[in-house]
Amino acid sequence: MTNNFMQQGARLLVFVTLFAGGLSAAYLDDTVPHPPMFDELIARIRNGETITQNEKEVCNDIGDDYVNDLRIANDELKIHDFLTADRVMYYMSCVKMSIIYPEKFDRLAASSAECMTTFKGFQQLRQSDKDTMTTLSCIIPAVKSNEIDYAVTAYKELLENDPFLASYAYRWLQRDSNVVSNAKTFLEQIKSLPLPKPPEKSKP
């Protein structure tokens, strides 16, 4: 317990130091990194490949282990009480699982209880991290936080730089517009933009 407390205190000191000057991508080096399988499977989906049911289940199990690792890193706190960077990483894992295993997690990106609590973390992170997965992951938290202009700007960037991921943001918000706060306002503001190309159908 003493070691866990000291480790948590050290991570908190790093967080306070970095957040004072803006949550930077470098801080994510101090978090529990996403399992490589997440990005490997998304790359295959991007290429139109079929992900087997077994691979989805294995990824699901790895995802459960990842959340447990985050809990340990946060001294067994509830997800809502994680350090901001860890909540950001947790929510990004929800977004990735929504893409990888839609039969089970398709609504997770929009329905995660931690979605709204991550917006300020993403806002700070995106000052230095322009990765398109980070951009995708910030959009729904921004919409739910009524930061519509921010969400629209991020969506436009994503539409230009990664229409594959933009298609997910559009589909999730359009489908769940009746339950996601402010989604209809967001959709109204992007209606003049071209529709993102949907993901290609899986191929063997």
Essential attributes:
204 residues, mainly alpha, 11 helices, 64% helix
Question: In words, what does this structure look like?
Answer:
By secondary structure, the chain is mostly helical. The model is unreliable at 1-27 (pLDDT under 50). 64% of the residues lie in helices and 0% in strands.
In short:
By secondary structure, the chain is mostly helical. It has helices at residues 2-20, 36-46, 53-73, 84-100, 102-105, 108-111, 119-125, 132-144, 148-161, 163-175, 183-190.
How would you sum up the global shape?
globular
Through-space gap between termini: 49 Å
Radius of gyration, in Å, reads 17 Å
Model regions low in confidence, pLDDT < 50 over at least 5 residues = 1-27
Number of strands: 0
Q: Helix content range of the residues, please?
A: 55-70%
Strand content: under 5%
Our count of helices gives 11
Element order: H for helix, E for strand: HHHHHHHHHHH
Structural class estimated from helices and strands: mainly alpha
